[in-house]
């Protein structure tokens, strides 16, 4: 079977599995990203996320992750919700409304990979969803799925940025898609709106100041006092730089049932969050990404916001 047919097969299957965009790039060294990543790490922009320092070479070269890798297939899965949380409450990022995306997408990718082996034969490769040293935004950009915005998120002209990114790295030669241009122009809405001034320059985010980092990744018992009064009531993650992005006017509600929130989540007010018991927490977030902070993390974040 020719690489044209393989490419068509992959794009059709991606659509069938619910991925609304699929792009392909050659598995090669990420030359442009290498100095940028090195500088970002040297400037301690990753805060206490020490794992970001690991596997530097693997992050930049997929051939070190998959023997004989020839292509990177990048996939986007929409998570934009049809309903949002009530006003004047402690907020959680929209991506965490429903079930943990890692499990949902991993299942889709496993089915995808099995399909390729059934249809094509001996295909070597691995599937990834935000759980290995893969620079997913860089690969999605290379394959034409969007550009990296000033808030460092991938932005797509037809769908904005409320989507998950996943990859298949394959030892299969495929037709490549080229990158598109940057459409941010002179807009600085994300930079101006960031509550903690984490976007320190266009296209540079200081992770250690980002509300998502502070409320999820940072494991300290108490959040840094310098952020008191600056968290804009975000209790888990933050969507500010995406909410203000003009390209997100094109976001449309997802159709993945597993991403729908628990019926009680959207109704919760501040008092409900402050009185949250471990039992209710377990019920609300049974299969959710919010479990990453554990019950104690949620309590820490809520009490920090309450005292701000």
Automatic annotation (TrEMBL):
Give residues annotated as binding [4Fe-4S] cluster 1: 184, 187, 190, 245
One GO biological process this protein is involved in is: tRNA queuosine(34) biosynthetic process
| Residues of the 4Fe-4S ferredoxin-type domain | 172-204
Its localization reads: Cytoplasm
The species is: Lishizhenia tianjinensis
Among HAMAP family, the record links this protein to: QueG (MF_00916)
Q: Which residues bind [4Fe-4S] cluster 2?
A: 194, 210, 238, 241
The record, for PANTHER family, names: EPOXYQUEUOSINE REDUCTASE
Tell me the subunit arrangement: Monomer.
Top-rank taxon, per record: Bacteria
Name of this chain's protein: Epoxyqueuosine reductase
Q: What is the lineage of its organism?
A: Bacteria, Pseudomonadati, Bacteroidota, Flavobacteriia, Flavobacteriales
Chain sites annotated for binding cob(II)alamin: 59, 130, 151, 154, 165, 212, 238-239
Reactions the enzyme catalyzes = epoxyqueuosine(34) in tRNA + AH2 = queuosine(34) in tRNA + A + H2O
Q: By which gene is this protein encoded?
A: queG
**Sequence similarity:** Belongs to the QueG family.
- Mind telling me which SUPFAM superfamilies this protein's record contains? alpha-helical ferredoxin
- Annotated EC: 1.17.99.6
Q: Where is the active site?
A: 130 (proton donor)
| Major localization class | cytoplasm
Molecular-function GO terms, alphabetical:
4 iron, 4 sulfur cluster binding; cobalamin binding; epoxyqueuosine reductase activity; metal ion binding
